[in-house]
Amino acid sequence: MEQQINEKIIEIVHQANDMIPVEWDDLYINFEVDRTLSGEIYFFFKYNGEYHYFFYIPQEFGISKSEFFDEYRLLFKKAQELKKVFMDNGLSDWSAGLIHLDENNKLSVDFDYAPWLESGFGPSARTSFFQYKYLGKQPANEKELEQFKAMEVFQREHNQK
Asked: Are 21 and 30 in contact (CB under 8 A)?
């Protein structure tokens, strides 16, 4: 079972890597998958000293959108398969996961148990929070900073079990 989990994580990393058409230095993959296997996955990679959002790869690097989104569907399927391994084995019910592969190829994986999909914080807010927490994004204004602080509290409360 542990080997199966590790294999799925490596498959996710390989799939994301295959979608990036350039040499990168740092990769963050964030995925949210609920018990119905619904959710989303996205990633940021550092290239030329800046983080790039996966969604813009086709336009930034001249990649076919249809081929790219076929690869994206495969990436999300791998996240679903990882969730299914946890469910099938009665393991903890995470709501989100983060895979980080740094410039030294050091891999880290964290699971989040906060019920983000039921939180009232929408997908855009969660993506911005991710950028704030991991990529150094500065809040656009005081209101956004307050939202990030509320999200930190929400996350902390649900991960102290």
From this structure: no
